[in-house]
């Protein structure tokens, strides 16, 4: 958001003013300044490490340790240097850094105020467990509520998210990770006040840093997977312009079916990949056949029907795709054995392929193609139900009908073509395999 709306700038200015006020009065004792400086340096170092690992997020244990150890004004200073020096991905860089610093300062101030009001600093100094958990838990709640309230405001004003959606789910999504960080921060604070001192407190960060690094590696690997899939899909879209957007829509429909079937999140993601990549084998089919306007000859159809095998050869070495590879190979098989490439029947067809077959045919019918106009969703679902048991798995069809009834469907349709006569689901699916 390079051009920040005036109302968003005004909102940021108000938050910054509040942050400046919350840092008053400044700490008066050298011991407080020393603790603020040490925690601020540690927090800034953690932020720099996060930027190096390209991990999105912030290191809350240090901030919450400051809230548990220091007065509200002193604790509010801890995030300031690290936030102002943090890595920012989008412009305007300065404004984003200032916003980050200001809203973290307000969050830490709120946490420290609640913690102190409940006698938390005395319980930390006396290592008074389990009673120290009560004020610490209240402080974490205050911290989380403050951040989500402020972040919802910037989403509504700066990113133009509708007000009814700006705050929806923010608090619940952030509470669990912040609570874990709060426990680490409480451990730091207790050790800081123990005879072992700040050095022992900082050792708490070592396992947190290791787990954070592992998590960052996971996200980096996941980003590489997404980039691989995106490159393959873009190549197919460039080769066959008729199907632009088809792969993503089939991936979305496959994901909806998988969720309706109650599959776990990992399998849902794999089936989304299966839907996205189901037609990748078209890279091995001559472009002139994919773009042919007239009817296909039997020989041309046989060439195009090789695309599932081409696709399987392309993706079989990509280990993270798992059962998606079977879907790429078998998504044109039919329950009655009349499909291709191997004429599998019933449960011989992998479940992932049966999911993608329904998603593929549904999008083929509800998208405008060179040979026919898009059909309404109810008509497409009726045709899928008519073909269930012969061509499609009835479970998958029922799952799609239920999911669409609850969530709806808004396909990307290319306008401007004249409608052709009615094309049944079986023929639409054939053309989806031959020339979507």
CATH fold-level name of the largest domain: Hypothetical protein af1432
Q: How far is it from the N-terminal to the C-terminal residue, by CA? A: 37 Å
Rough outline: elongated
CATH class designation of the largest domain: Mainly Alpha
Order of helices and strands: HHHHHHHHHHHHHHHHHHHHHH
Strand content: under 5%
Largest sheet: none
Secondary structure: helix percent? 55-70%
Average predicted confidence as pLDDT: 83
CATH superfamily of the largest domain: Hypothetical protein af1432
Give me the number of helical elements.
22
Number of strands: 0
Question: What is Rg?
Answer: 28 Å
User: Which spans have pLDDT < 50 for at least 5 consecutive residues?
Assistant: 412-436
Helix-strand category: mainly alpha
CATH architecture field of the largest domain: Orthogonal Bundle
> What is the domain tally?
2
Provide structural commentary.
Pfam families: HD_5. It comes from Streptomyces gilvifuscus. The protein is mainly α and 436 residues long. The protein folds into 2 domains: 204 residues, no CATH class; 216 residues, Hypothetical protein af1432. Helices cover 67% and strands 0% of the residues. Helix 2 runs antiparallel to helix 3. The longest helix is centred in the middle third of the chain and has 35 residues. It starts with 5 loop residues before the first helix and ends with a helix.
